[in-house]
Write a structure and sequence with these properties.
The protein has about 950 residues and is of the alpha/beta class. The protein is built from 31 helices and 52 strands. The strands form 12 sheets. Strands 26, 27, 28, 31, 33, 34, 35, 36, 37 and 38 form a 10-stranded mixed beta sheet that branches. The protein has a 7-stranded antiparallel beta sheet with strand order 1-2-5-14-7-10-16. A 7-stranded mixed beta sheet has the order 40-42-45-47-49-51-52.
């Protein structure tokens, strides 16, 4: 693959200059093929492309690769030559000009493509392979020896136990052979060559190991004998497609390209990027890892129809769409073959003959035989024309569907639109720890225009929970407080409530650094021009729920448990419409998602049984999987189980009824402490549960008449409305996104995701509103007021509003809102809101809200600095560290000092929760120390007084 070459056009494209993008899109794109040496390769690819054959055996040619989440595709990523002599990675071009892919594709996959077409020169047999569901393959045979075959599909029912036994025996024999060849590479090569052509005479040099080799060959023959041998010839098209037995998606079945007779095949393989699971490798050396168990468990058991895999022969056109790829073969001549644009990018391979391709600008580009091109999705039309009499083209494009990324992105877009339309909650009730009420209310109110509506119409009321009362009694206390306020809570719409009490022990020492308010933990989520904290992000994410409920006629409070933002993969409004749910006369709404039952979920989550009308038939308590399945089997016909997501919406009528029958109770009660079970269980079933559920028995010791009180709530509601109790269930979708800041490792992962190449990373960048940033020539996404060395010492990192000065190395890190002098940050390191003259963040470390001359943190550890005394006139920041692989909330870690920390987390939590001196005043004192460091860092960077003044003012403005 040729290297990236800087040029004026390349720099303009990185800046996304429209004129540069227009210049690029005048011509078809021609990614340079990456030729890859393989032991089973040869010279056929070079001959097909009509280039000088390399000395090495070329087994693969990556024709187009821009899937950074796939190791092979990333290693052999495509580079595109530019008209002015420059060259850029294809992935960079897709970020700079996403119209190459089309809006629907970018929504579904980001500015990447899963398409991974390759040429394969099969001189020796490839391993027996399979792929995860959703990865069918197509092989267009370009050349083949007479009698050539490839192994594909099951010729007899799959006996997994027998396959496992063969593979286990073969692996043991392979280890024996490897030991015998450990000191002789020539012997190992000879053994491997014979195993791939076992009909040849066994070389005399291998005679001492003949028993091992013959048994390996027999196992190989047995395994391959259970598969079809598909005859192929030049022009044969083989579609490796079966239905996944679990989900029905188009998938590839077992295959092993090539044959033991050594008859060669040159093929164009059309597939999408993703893992390859090697089931068996014929016993050859050196041994490669197998993933047989994963592959076999995902395969259908029934035999395949061999004839069904072959869809065309030489000279036959074809066009198929298997839901993953749309592929076709066309013959073009001297008369232009024309195609209207379809808003998808199209891969074109010249299988035979040369062609010219031209688009709307009518700039013809010649594509030589054996070469490939990519037609941009934004072209309204294009045409191909044979240079000589006739040419054969193979076309392929990705089928765009509702991927997880697309579903989550639509929810994100809908949420931002809700805020833009001022359609967010008009009233917000926040339940906070005692002493936190004014701080939480002030911060939430300041962020209200970004969270709920630009006009700032939202009223925020905070209630302090001086004594922990649980979800049920706590929300009743809060609503009694709000209803007594001036003005009282409005009841003509849907209010938004959130429960934020808690000590945040598992986030120590960050909770202590946040003055004991764990919901203030920063998150890499932007709403408007603001970074959100965990509590604000949780409120913001529930805006889709409140808006949908209000439009459907519900009147009440939509409660959000805790500070974990959630974005559904199915919009609440769509779920309501699917069941034609009218919510005007609904007493409560529960939220769940349809997922596969697992032992872990069964033991740790409640389950909602939703009937055909979208109502709650029953809520079932957590229990072992077998017991849960038995309970679900007793459910009424037509119900389906959804895992309970916790947060409920309660109508004002239900809140009144709950207050009437529970409001005066002392102690602690949770909403999900059997309330909805009692509402949906008849007395007999309730008695059955009480006899076997230890948690319910403990509840009844505290509140013996719990079921009677719940029955009174139900009777009160039914008498007031003259109708039976009605509880709706809304399915938020199986791919609902959760943002969890409750643990140190999860906090690091939330930020580190910004640099990940997969769809999780792309969604993280969309949440942070940096998805349009084009990587620089070192793979960095640099955003905002940032200073970054342009010499390659910073690579593959995300740098936001950060100064990096005298950098040593920063690789695969995320740095936000920081100023760092001599910095060494290893892969996975995250630094947020930190100022340091020198810093070393080891692999997967986390540094948040720290300052100091020299800071260092070990791998997988967290570092912050907390003032020695928040009441001191000049408080001194002290370093606090912890191993994120441990639980800081465990008693041994929380109650006693850990490592070199100055005190225990418990003692520091109590100290930092002081409110005599406002936290903002403490932060201003800390900033004075940071400003001295800022001055020295700015001087080392050669930044002037104006830049330093702007930076200081920016920091001061961020203190709440």
């Amino acid at each position: 693959m040729p290297p990236e070459r800087d040029s004026e056009l390349a720099r303009a494209l990185r800046r996304r200059e429209p004129a540069a993008v227009d210049a690029l899109l005048r011509e078809v794109l021609r990614p340079d093929a990456a030729l890859v040496e393989r032991p089973w390769g040869g010279s056929a690819i070079a001959a097909h492309k009509r280039i000088v054959a390399p000395a090495a055996a070329i087994g693969e040619s990556f024709e187009l690769a821009a899937a950074p989440w796939d190791d092979e595709a990333a290693t052999h990523a495509s580079v595109v030559a530019l008209p002015d002599g420059g060259a850029l990675p294809l992935g960079t071009l897709l970020c700079a000009a996403p119209q190459i892919l089309g809006a629907a594709h970018v929504e579904a996959f980001g500015p990447t493509t899963p398409l991974l077409p390759k040429l394969l020169d099969v001189h020796a047999m490839l391993s027996v392979q399979a792929h995860p569901p959703g990865q069918p393959e197509l092989y267009v045979v370009l050349a083949a020896d007479p009698g050539a075959t490839l192994q594909l599909g099951l010729a007899q029912p799959l006996d997994r136990d027998r396959w496992r036994a063969w593979i286990d025996e073969g692996t043991a024999l392979q280890r024996t052979l490897a030991a015998a060849c450990a000191d002789d590479a020539t012997r190992a090569a000879a053994a491997s060559a014979w195993l791939l052509q076992p009909d040849a005479p066994l070389p005399a040099s291998l005679a001492p190991w003949s028993t091992t080799l013959l048994r390996l060959a027999a196992i190989d023959a047995a395994l391959l004998g259970t598969m079809h041998a598909i005859p192929v010839a030049p022009g044969t098209v083989v579609h490796n497609r079966v239905a996944d037995p679990h989900e029905g998606r188009s998938s590839a079945t077992l295959h092993a390209l090539g044959n033991l007779q050594g008859r060669r095949i040159l093929a164009l393989e059309l597939r999408v990027a993703g893992p390859t699971w090697r089931v068996w490798d014929h016993g050859r050396l050196p041994a490669r890892a197998l993933q047989a168990e994963r592959a076999l468990d995902g395969l259908p058991l029934t035999p395949d129809d061999a004839a069904g895999f072959v869809i065309a022969q030489q000279g036959q056109a074809f066009a198929i769409d298997d839901g993953v790829l749309a592929t076709e073969r066309v013959i073009v001549g001297a008369t232009p073959w024309r195609r209207e644009g379809r808003d998808v990018a199209v891969f074109v391979h010249a299988a035979r003959g040369a062609v010219t391709l031209a688009g709307p600008a009518d700039v013809p580009v010649r594509i030589e035989p054996g070469c490939s091109a990519w037609v941009p999705a934004c072209w309204s039309h294009w045409h191909a024309q044979a240079v000589a009499d006739e040419a054969e083209l193979v076309l392929a494009s990705v089928c765009v569907g509702p991927t997880r990324l697309a579903l989550r992105t639509r929810a994100l877009v809908a949420l931002r639109d809700t805020v833009a339309r001022d359609a967010g909650a008009r009233e917000v009730v926040v339940v906070a720890n005692g002493g936190d009420g004014p701080l939480v209310q002030a911060r939430t109110a300041a962020q209200a225009p970004a969270l709920f509506g630009r006009s700032g119409h939202t009223r925020v009321v905070a209630h302090e929970e001086r004594t922990r009362r649980g979800q049920l009694l706590g929300l009743l206390d809060a609503l009694a407080h709000v209803r007594a306020a001036t003005p009282p809570l409005r009841e003509d719409g849907v209010a938004l409530g959130i429960m934020l009490p808690g000590q945040g022990t598992r986030l120590s020492p960050l909770t202590q650094r946040l003055h004991g308010i764990k919901p203030f933990a920063p998150m890499p989520i932007r709403a408007g021009d603001r970074w959100l904290d965990a509590g604000s992000a949780s409120l913001w994410s529930w805006g889709l729920v409140t808006a949908a409920l209000e439009r459907a006629g519900f009147r009440g409070v939509a409660w959000k448990w805790g500070d974990e933002p959630q974005l559904p993969s199915q919009l609440p409004a769509d779920s309501i419409a699917a069941h034609r749910l009218g919510l005007e006369r609904v007493d409560a709404v529960r939220f769940g998602m349809r997922v596969a039952l697992t032992e872990d979920l069964a033991r740790n989550k409640e389950w909602l049984l939703q009937d055909k009308e979208g109502r709650l038939a029953m809520q079932v308590r957590r229990r072992p999987l077998a017991a849960l399945q038995a309970r679900l089997d007793r459910a009424p016909a037509g119900t389906r189980a959804l895992v309970n997501l916790g947060s409920p919406a309660l109508s004002f009528a239900m809140i009144d009824a709950l207050a009437q029958h529970f409001g005066a109770l002392p102690g602690w009660l949770d909403v999900d402490g059997y309330l909805f079970e009692a509402l949906t269980h008849d007395p007999a079933l309730w008695a059955e549960e009480a006899a076997s559920d230890a948690g319910l028995q403990a509840l009844l010791q505290q509140c013996p008449d719990f079921y009677a009180r719940v029955a009174a709530v139900r009777d009160t509601l039914e008498q007031r409305r003259g109708a039976a109790l009605a509880i709706a269930v809304i399915d938020l979708g199986a791919d609902t996104w959760w943002g969890d800041m409750g643990q140190l490792s999860r906090a690091r992962e939330a930020f580190a995701a910004l640099a990940r190449p997969d769809d999780g990373g792309e969604f993280a960048r969309r949440l942070a509103a940096i998805e349009t940033v084009v990587p620089d020539r070192f793979g960095n996404r640099v955003v905002g007021d940032s200073v970054v060395p342009d010499d390659g010492r910073v690579r593959d990192s995300v740098i936001i509003d950060t100064w990096l000065v005298d950098t040593v190395t920063v690789v695969g890190a995320v740095v936000i809102d920081s100023e760092l002098g001599a910095a060494r940050l290893d892969p996975g390191a995250v630094v947020v809101d930190t100022t340091a003259a020198a810093i070393h963040g080891s692999t997967d470390s986390l540094v948040i809200a720290a300052c100091g001359e020299v800071l260092g943190v070990a791998a997988a550890h967290v570092l912050t600095t907390i003032v020695d005394d928040p009441l001191a006139a000049d408080p001194v920041p002290q370093p606090w560290r912890f191993d994120m692989r441990e639980d800081p909330g465990a008693a041994a870690n929380y109650r006693s000092p850990v490592g070199d920390n100055p005190a225990s987390f418990a003692d520091k939590f109590a100290q930092m929760r002081q409110r005599q001196r406002p936290p903002a005043a403490v932060e201003r004192a800390v900033l004075q120390r940071r400003e001295a460091l800022l001055g020295s860092i700015a001087a080392r960077a050669g930044l002037g007084a104006d830049a330093l003044a702007r930076r200081v003012a920016w920091h001061r403005g961020r203190i709440h």
